[in-house]
Amino acid sequence: MADVTLRQIRKDYGGVQIIHGLDLHIKSGEFVVFVGPSGCGKSTLLRMVAGLETISAGDMHIGEIRVNELAPRDRDIAMVFQDYALYPHKTVRDNMGFGLRLRKFSSAEIESRVNNAAETLQISHLLDRFPKALSGGQRQRVAMGRAIVRQPKVFLFDEPLSNLDALLRNQVRAEIKKLHRRVRETVIYVTHDQVEAMTLADRIVVLQAGRIVQVGTPDEIYGRPQHRFVAGFTGSPPMNFLPARLAQDGDAMTLHIANAKPLLLPSSLAQRWRSHAGREVEFGIRPENLSLSQQHGEWPTIEAEVELVELLGAENLLTLKLGAHELKARLAPQVRPSIGARLAIALDPAHFHLFDLQTGNVIQP
Ligand SMILES: Nc1ncnc2c1ncn2[C@@H]1O[C@H](COP(=O)(O)OP(=O)(O)O)[C@@H](O)[C@H]1O
Ligand SMILES: [Mg+2]
Q1: Is the CB of 39 under 6 A from ligand 1?
Q2: Atom 24 (ligand 1): residue with closest C-alpha?
Q3: 113 lines ligand 1 (CB under 6 A)
Q4: Is the peptide bond before 243 cis (omega within 30 degrees of 0)?
Q5: CB-CB contact of 336 with 315 (8 Å)
Q6: Which domain holds residue 292?
Q7: Final residue of a domain: which of 166, 195, 227?
Q8: Are 46 and 167 found together in one domain?
Q9: pTM score
Q10: Measured from the CA of 159, which atom of ligand 1 is nearest?
Q11: What is the block-wise mean pLDDT of the chain (365 residues), using blocks of 10 residues?
């Protein structure tokens, strides 16, 4: 177990800067997920921790040791890749033990570590098989076993579930989480999938174009996004965004969303945003914070037209039209309005988000 510290870490490829001076401290035993769209630099960053990419500038520490110039094998890390990279001509047992054999561990120690890891991963019955006789999920478990037997200070995962089908992905995801509960090792896990990030992470690092946009617990990232990009990247469907304007009306404050009737803001919000009266903003609200107005008489309401109703079993997803704009609402499964109906939609003021139109930064009270 070790902490990992990045100080002003940069990566240039042939004069083009890909990672722009990142600072991050990962605590010992913490499960940290790097999440962001394809191409934002997640793998590059992970490979720099692993020693598979050179570091163009900055300092990388694993524990007390500055590792910038250390070879991967000397960093005491183990990495699990998306494509498993198993040796086809070795059994599961030999695949798992191979790294230890190279490091001259005794046969008894290798056998004990492999057996323990196999038990943890529930693949003991597969130890004498070859990779071609395994399913995708089983191969992924062998790849994890190979990392576990090394007992590294830090585990690195690069999109390890991407090649699995949806059901298996959920299963293995839950297993990775349980495994971490048990071993409490430092994990850095890379994914483009926000659900994986939300479910696995102690802390999430949201990356965009080689920069950190926000670091926080899953609750913080979801409930208090500091940037429009974070708000729009999390949740399915993600947060709704609408153009809006804050206005002062005597002592009260109103919010003019698109072309809807102005909403009277509750006094707590009016106080928070008073200094921004007159400002054009981007209004954000998550689909689960919309409701039918009858149920929440005290919430501000807007009128919108039902464009689409999707029955998802446990809930219904409504697409609503507000002038030229679209809003998604997650409602109870018994709510089945007809297409074209005009509904009064209540908006939960406890979950209003306002973002700066130019920078995308959240508008603080
Ligand atoms: N070997 C390389 N040479 C030049 N550019 C690269 C190389 N590897 C990655 N890049 C670029 O760096 C950026 C980040 O890539 P990557 O770390 O793979 O992103 P992610 O894993 O988030 O999808 C991309 O724009 C990619 O094109
Ligand atoms: Mg990648």
Answers
A1: yes
A2: 39
A3: no
A4: no
A5: no
A6: 240-356
A7: 227
A8: yes
A9: 0.93
A10: 21
A11: 96 96 98 97 97 97 97 93 88 95 95 94 94 91 92 94 87 89 92 96 98 98 97 95 94 91 91 93 97 84 95 96 95 93 94 96 87
